[in-house]
Structures are given as C-alpha cells and as structure tokens.
Design brief:
This protein is α/β, with parallel strands linked by helices and 166 residues long. It is 39% helix and 25% strand. It is globular, with a radius of gyration of 18 Å. The termini are far apart. The relative contact order is 0.19. The mean pLDDT is 84.
C-alpha cells in the first residue's frame, strides 16, 4: 500500500519537477511612438498564458518601447529582475512594427508588424540560449479580431517553447 501511495505522489508531482521559471518581456520596436500598442498587449497576454498553461512558473516584466539604440540598460534591469525573482530564463519578445503613417496603437492588423524576434537568455549567466524570428507575412491586410491575434501570438509562443527544450 505504501508503494502505491508513493507512486501516486510521484506521478502527481512529476509535471512540477520539469517546470521552468520564465520571465517575459515584450519589447515594442516602433518609430517615434510612445504608447504600447494593443497588439503588443495581446502578445504579452497570449505568451504568458501559453507557458502558464504548459505548467511553467511565469512572470513578466513591464513592456517597453525601443525607438533606437541598443537598450542595454533596460536589458540589464530586466535580467536583474529575472535573477532576483528566482526565474531560470528570460524571454524577450521584440515586435518590430513597419515604419509609416498608418501605425495605429489601437489597431489589430498583423500587416503592421515587420517581424517578431525572440531571445531566450539563461538568467544564471545572461547568455543567449536560443533566438529566432517570424514574420506574419503580407497576406494579413485585413483588420483582425483580438482572438485571431491571440491565436497567432500563441503560435509564436509555441515556437519560443521549442527553443526552451535545449
């Protein structure tokens, strides 16, 4: 009976043994903008939800806007937050918006995104573990619903997840 109880406890706690502590930050790259776009907020929610539902311990640092420069001070600040929060990984998702007059902070148009790049860092060393990018393509010229943006962001999160398995 004790062996069965021990086995049941081990099976119950097994998923928690493989959970990673992950801190996310959305970096919005927009020319001459000072407001976090609605698409960036949806991405933050979808990526956080994806990893939480996968059983990971998830936190997020506030989204930031990068208008130029290397943004090293912001990176160091977020890496320190990751370390002091006891997280193993820092994932920075950079959403680069196309330059132009048609940028609408409230708009839900994937066509306004040039590309989405993510970098995964080990918090213990600050070194890059994996990196990749994806472009939503030019076939998404129509206004999308929040659910469609959320689904695309979840797809991006699944791509990020494949880089965490290393």
């Amino acid at each position: 009976m004790k062996k069965i109880a021990f086995l049941a406890v081990c099976i119950f706690f097994m998923p928690f043994l493989s959970a990673k502590g992950i801190n996310f930050q959305i970096v919005q790259i927009t020319p001459e903008q000072t407001e976090i776009f609605e698409i960036s907020k949806i991405f933050e929610e979808a990526v956080t939800d994806f990893f939480y539902e996968a059983g990971h311990i998830v936190t997020n640092s506030p989204s930031c806007i990068k208008n130029g420069g290397d943004n090293q001070e912001e990176f160091k600040k977020v890496l320190l937050e990751t370390i002091t929060g006891g997280m193993e990984m820092l994932v920075r998702v950079e959403i680069s918006f196309k330059e132009g007059e048609g940028l609408n902070p409230k708009g839900l148009n994937l066509n306004s995104i040039d590309n989405i790049r993510w970098n995964v860092y080990a918090s213990s060393t600050g070194k890059l573990v994996s990196s990749s990018q994806i472009s939503p393509g030019n076939d998404k010229n129509i206004k999308m619903t929040e659910a469609e943006i959320y689904n695309f962001a979840s797809f991006v999160a699944s791509k990020i997840s494949s880089g965490l398995r290393n």
